[in-house]
Amino acid sequence: MSEAVENTTYTPIDLAVNSVVKVFTASSKPSIVHPWQNWLQYESTGSGFVISGRKILTNAHVVADHTFVQVRKHGSPTKYKAKVGAIGHECDLAILEIDSETFWEGMNPLEFGDIPCLDEAVTVVGYPHGGDSVSITKGAVSRVEFTEYVHGATKLLAVQVSAAIDSGNSGGPAVIGNKIVGVVLADDINAGYISFEDLQVKTVNGVQVENLRHLYEMIENCCAEDLRLDLENDQVMVLNYKDAKEATSLILEHHRISSPISKDLLQSEEIVLASLFKDASL
């Protein structure tokens, strides 16, 4: 594998082709109620990038509870088996290792830079949901402060940028010049999961759901900025309440639901959620 050359400036295209990869994860969460068994397996995707030492850096939540992990290079149909060499849930980071020599051919490791200044131009490279190819977006640094990481629930340094970032970008690099200034983190706990369809809602913001009408009333009367839904299979969905109320017919169609929400509440929980939430698949 070729090592990064000092003072070399990579263009966003160089980063996409030679450094950033798409991560495919099959996961199965352990059951809290029945610790001797796991829940059904689900699949998710994220991003990652090559660092020195033949390692790939990504987010911990991208590979959390993994049973099988693969990575794919830009422009290649081949998925390479990866091993999680280290994981830190508090800082939401994980290191992947790949034994295949073929994978490392032509890959460039990226180097870390300093903490960026406000209004510096930044480029984000990754594989957001909604497509299969690499995405490159640009923006500026708008905030640098300590904030609570959603995955680890720990307050650590974070950089907020104006570049467009979607689910699937998690684990990709934020770059200024030829240096990494950050790893893209989820701004909500849902990033990386393909779908939450057909999962029963257990609690809303910590309050246990008694029945479908109770679920609807709690969501309608919510005064909090965010809605935290604890679902079956020990999964969690967090949505901004204002965005969640902007439901459209396209959302219903996306969830294969032909009619809008019924006022008599005779529909199932997932229909209510798909009607109330902007996109329940995040």
UniProtKB/TrEMBL annotation:
Q: Which GO terms describe its molecular function?
A: serine-type endopeptidase activity
Q: Which UniProt keywords apply?
A: Hydrolase, Protease, Serine protease
Q: What domain of life does the native source organism fall in?
A: Eukaryota
InterPro entries assigned to the protein according to its UniProt record, in alphabetical order? DEGP_PDZ, DEGP_PDZ_sf, Peptidase_S1_PA, Peptidase_S1_PA_chymotrypsin, Peptidase_S1C
Q: Where is the Protease Do-like PDZ domain?
A: 183-264
| A GO biological process held by the record | proteolysis
Sequence intervals crossing the membrane: none
Instruction: Describe the family membership recorded for this protein in Swiss-Prot or TrEMBL.
Output: Belongs to the peptidase S1C family.
Which protein are we looking at? Protease Do-like PDZ domain-containing protein
Q: Which organism is it from?
A: Arabis alpina (Alpine rock-cress)
